Predict the 3D structure of the following.
Amino acid sequence: MRITGVTASAHRLPLRRAWDGGVDRNDVVVVRVSTDEGLVGTGFSWTPLIGARAVAALVNDDLAPALLGRTAHPALWDEALWHLREAGTTGLTLMALAGVDIALWDVHARSLGVPLVDLLGRRRERVASYGSGVNLDYDLPDLLDQVRGWVDRGHRAVKIKVGSAAVERDVERVGAVRDLLGPERLLMIDANQRWDVPQAARALARLEPFDPHFVEEPLPAQDLGAHVRLRARTGLPFALGENLRSVAEFERFVDEGVCDVAQPNVVRVGGITPFLRIAESVARRGVPVAPHLLPELSGQLALCLPRVAMVEDIDHASFAALGALAAPSGVEFAGDHLSAQTGPGHGLVFADDLAPLP
């Protein structure tokens, strides 16, 4: 089965409520790989705010000509990355490659007539999930309403943002959420890289009595040395990885003892192929994966991983919630878990009438 066409189109998905910092949309690049057998695989890239047109241009102008006539199989990943190396080997390059890689996995599974989960090797029928929101700018009543909604839907774990200008505000909010959850539910906190080492040490000392299950991105994501210094000052587990890109980066953070839960984003690392490599590598080091966002695909991958923690149920920001899909994907949250029963491939069919970028 040979590739006869590769196309990418960029679209805008408005959010129901803006995320912290004024992020009012998610942009998605839909990638389609056509074959000489008439099958078409669908992939995507994703960016909350910046870069969608650049990603689409890399696919259309640089990847498409290089892939025409090649075997339609995700084994092309390393060769495709080498082809793009002059544009860099991370960042937008990986995000463009992700769209093609996801499409190649989709068309490969469809050519075999099997769901992606079964092609990869389903290890479990369901995986734990947690409620998550980008909510640092919510006032306390709104935050508690959001958390209460997750609890009412059956979640037994939730994650909220921290990193306020005054640590007292974080203490009040985390304390109120802990009171609402009670001692039996898990509470995670996410600083989104807002602290430096002294700020993080002081804040975590104040927040530790509320028993956070982990703290996510307490420091600038690539600063390994800072994480090592912070590790010496707190016993709280660190969840890291939404802004790491390569197997080598994840291995360095894990080997230095500062990544207790790995959080690769399937688009930012370059697609399903490198995502699986990262998951295998950290599993050998005793670290579970909690995929970052994109639950309709991340959840399917989580069902196949050797070590998995939880899948993120992001509030009103899945592809389904954003109205991006033409039909249900077969990936469902129910209570405190996610399951997936898709048709052949990954089951994601993007709507034909998605709004283009303005």
Q: What stands out?
A: The chain is about 35% helix and 20% strand. The first strand starts at residue 3 and ends at 19.
